[in-house]
């Protein structure tokens, strides 16, 4: 995680929050997927609910893009 997100304590806090959020969303990804979640500086001050909403939005875009590129095949 980039130092632009904040100091070590802040980066670790954001990392723990994102890990927790992703744990509940892993079943939405196709088996064998590799996903990198990158935190931007605003993540340091974002409320948990906002991080969850932004992550859900990003996952939806990713899954829609994948669905359209595979022609609906999984």
Describe the protein's architecture and organization.
The protein is built from 2 helices and no strands. With 74 residues, the chain is mainly alpha-helical. The chain has one domain (3-70). α1 crosses α2 (48-70). The radius of gyration is 14 Å and the shape is elongated. 5% of the residues are buried. Its EC number is 3.1.26.5. InterPro entries: Ribosomal_Su5_D2-typ_SF, Ribsml_uS5_D2-typ_fold_subgr, RNase_P, RNase_P_CS. It is an enzyme of class 3 (hydrolase). Keywords: Endonuclease, Hydrolase, Nuclease, RNA-binding, tRNA processing. This is Ribonuclease P protein component.
Radius of gyration: 14 Å
Q: Mind describing the biggest β-sheet?
A: none
Count of helix runs = 2
How many separate structural domains? 1
Structural shape: elongated
Keywords: Endonuclease, Hydrolase, Nuclease, RNA-binding, tRNA processing
Protein name: Ribonuclease P protein component
InterPro entries: Ribosomal_Su5_D2-typ_SF, Ribsml_uS5_D2-typ_fold_subgr, RNase_P, RNase_P_CS
Enzyme class: hydrolase
């Amino acid at each position: 995680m980039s130092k632009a997100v904040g100091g070590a304590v802040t980066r670790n806090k954001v990392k723990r929050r994102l890990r927790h959020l992703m744990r509940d969303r892993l079943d939405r990804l196709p088996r064998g997927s590799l996903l990198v979640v990158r935190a931007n500086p605003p993540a340091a001050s974002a409320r948990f609910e906002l991080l969850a909403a932004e992550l859900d939005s990003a996952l939806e875009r990713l899954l829609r893009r994948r669905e359209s590129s595979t022609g609906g095949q999984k």
